[in-house]
Amino acid sequence: MKQGAAIHRLLSMAIAIAVPAVAYAVNDRFDMEFIVLGAVIGLAYWYWGPSWPPL
């Protein structure tokens, strides 16, 4: 596995975790829609990814 691919996967997981974590920090409770939103954004970043640099 190339180093760029590992960083790309790590970033998509960080995005998927960060969205519900920030929502919890703001609202002091976990809401299902923020967990789903984080998962969708993380999956979309993993699937389409950045256009530059090519990984």
Task: Give an account of the 3D structure.
The protein has about 55 residues and is mainly α. Helices cover about 75% and strands about 0% of the residues. The chain is built from two helices and no strands. The protein has helices spanning about 5-25, 30-50. The longest helix has 25 residues, at about 5-25. The N and C termini lie close together (about 10 Å). The relative contact order is 0.21. The model has no long low-confidence stretch (mean pLDDT about 85).
Quick recap of the structure?
With 55 residues, the chain is an all-alpha fold.
* Cα-to-Cα separation, first versus last residue: 10 Å
Shape: elongated
Give the helix tally.
2
Low-pLDDT stretches are: none
List the helices and strands and how they pair.
Blueprint: H1 3-27, H2 32-48
Keywords:
single chain, 55 residues, mainly alpha
